[in-house]
Amino acid sequence: MNGFFCLTVLLGSALGLVPQPPAPLLLEPAQINLGPVKSGQIFERRVQVLNRSPHPIDIHEIRTSCGCLQPRLHPRRLEPGAAATLDLRINSLTNAPGPQAWRAVLRGASAAGPVEAELTVLAEVLQELTLTPASLTLYLGERPVQTQLRLTDHRSRPLKVRGVSSSIPQITLDLEATTVQPIMINVTITPSLPVGRHDAQIEITTDDPEYPTLLVPVTINKRASQRWLTTPVELRFDASTGRQRRLTVRDSRGQPVSLGRIEATIPGVTAQVQPPTAAAATVLVTITPMATLREGELLLYVEGETAPLRVPIRVAPDERP
Asked: Is pLDDT above 60 for 75?
């Protein structure tokens, strides 16, 4: 009888019939379906995180598949049987039209080993507004950086922008017009930020109850003071058309600049050094049309230097430098 029972258990285990212990973390709900949403709408949802293990669990990381998910968990340490609250802000502005699935993965540890749980957010994104770009990644040196946001309402009765603001004082905004389509917003980043990465956001308020607020994520990478200065500090190209841009390299010490070889980390990018001037070196950078977003770097080797200058390259649909 005992042998038969053991054989049954072994066969059941092989066939997956023996009940498995519950996962240490339970998310309620583990899936959120927003249904049809309009690009630019913001949603807030709350999820309960339950520790079903006999050990305390410390959550040390929440990784999302998209910057459109902003999670906040409290507390981060869960005793056995205790629950935490995961608050989610979902910003649909940066997503393309059509079905979308976003994920948030909670990772932690307990005395029994690593712990992981996954949350899925589903939506069908409809697009009435176009904001280009829908997010900003900027590289800041010793001089201000300027760019533009273009907001277009494709409806017969477009919205009106009431105001714009930023979450940090180093981002200044100038609204050119509130009703003329497209609505143009000039963005200037001042160089007073400390060296490193800074995450911020631009808030656009409107008179439309369906789009009361549009949030634009901003990532600013402030570089340390350096001898070689490039203008611009980042090269942006339109993916569908391809184009040329000029890049200028100067020496902060006022010495002439001589460039050797130039390389690109993404295909379809070529660079040609123009006749030198006394103050700077100029490079003509050309790209071929590309079907998808590509990001990489242009590596410029200055004569006498071993490490190259690294200039970020971004090739994106409907990108305007």
From this structure: yes
